[in-house]
Amino acid sequence: MRKPCCEKKGTMNKGAWTKQEDQKLIDYIHKHGEGCWRSLPQAAGLLRCGKSCRLRWVNYLRPDLKRGNFGEDEEDLIIKLHALLGNRWSLIAGRLPGRTDNEVKNYWNTHLRRKLMQMGIDPNNHRPRPAVSVPNKSVGSDHSSTCKPENSQEEEDIGSVLQCSSKPESNTGFLPDLNLELTIGPPLIEERLQLSHIDSTQLSFSNFSTVIS
């Protein structure tokens, strides 16, 4: 197992670098070169970790660092290299003079990735993103409400005829229905009384004729 680059001591400085520390690191590298980062802090008189010294030099103190915003040619190159190399930021930064891998990675995540998505390109595989079609419910509802079936006109005509036939006619010219059916039923009470009176008269007359004879 590899040992850590430096021993964890209570006197080890952490946090932001001071101007004095930056100057010590610059002077030492100008005289002796980068060398071994594990032994550099002690040789330069810095109470820093070797990894911290390397990152400070590579990302901030190198004289060939390029400051400022990325140009359009740099953006195009980063996009092309990312399509070939993926997230291998050290290799991409090696083809951009004056740019660090950390700087290129941050610029990709904050600017270029969003730019590709707005252009409709997937930033992972650099291919056009499939368009997602969302059905418009309002259009469908309007269409269903306005469109009628083919036989709707016929149904309307039939409905109007039935509605007109169901309406009662006006009093003028209205003739009541005549019931022409003949029924045979028992005689009424008055007719019964008349028949009984006639029968009694005939009976008395017949009795009178028999007495005379």
Automatic annotation (TrEMBL):
<dbReference type="InterPro" id="IPR017930">
    <property type="entry name" value="Myb_dom"/>
</dbReference>
<dbReference type="GO" id="GO:0005634">
    <property type="term" value="C:nucleus"/>
</dbReference>
<dbReference type="GO" id="GO:0051707">
    <property type="term" value="P:response to other organism"/>
</dbReference>
<feature type="compositionally biased region" description="Polar residues">
    <location>
        <begin position="135"/>
        <end position="150"/>
    </location>
</feature>
<keyword id="KW-0238">DNA-binding</keyword>
<feature type="domain" description="HTH myb-type">
    <location>
        <begin position="62"/>
        <end position="116"/>
    </location>
</feature>
<dbReference type="InterPro" id="IPR009057">
    <property type="entry name" value="Homeodomain-like_sf"/>
</dbReference>
<keyword id="KW-0539">Nucleus</keyword>
<dbReference type="GO" id="GO:0000976">
    <property type="term" value="F:transcription cis-regulatory region binding"/>
</dbReference>
<dbReference type="GO" id="GO:0080090">
    <property type="term" value="P:regulation of primary metabolic process"/>
</dbReference>
<keyword id="KW-0805">Transcription regulation</keyword>
<feature type="domain" description="Myb-like">
    <location>
        <begin position="9"/>
        <end position="61"/>
    </location>
</feature>
<feature type="domain" description="Myb-like">
    <location>
        <begin position="62"/>
        <end position="112"/>
    </location>
</feature>
<feature type="domain" description="HTH myb-type">
    <location>
        <begin position="13"/>
        <end position="61"/>
    </location>
</feature>
<dbReference type="Pfam" id="PF00249">
    <property type="entry name" value="Myb_DNA-binding"/>
</dbReference>
<keyword id="KW-0677">Repeat</keyword>
<comment type="subunit">
    <text>Can form complexes with MYC2, MYC3 or MYC4.</text>
</comment>
<dbReference type="InterPro" id="IPR001005">
    <property type="entry name" value="SANT/Myb"/>
</dbReference>
<protein>
    <submittedName>
        <fullName>Uncharacterized protein</fullName>
    </submittedName>
</protein>
<dbReference type="InterPro" id="IPR015495">
    <property type="entry name" value="Myb_TF_plants"/>
</dbReference>
<feature type="region of interest" description="Disordered">
    <location>
        <begin position="121"/>
        <end position="169"/>
    </location>
</feature>
<keyword id="KW-0804">Transcription</keyword>
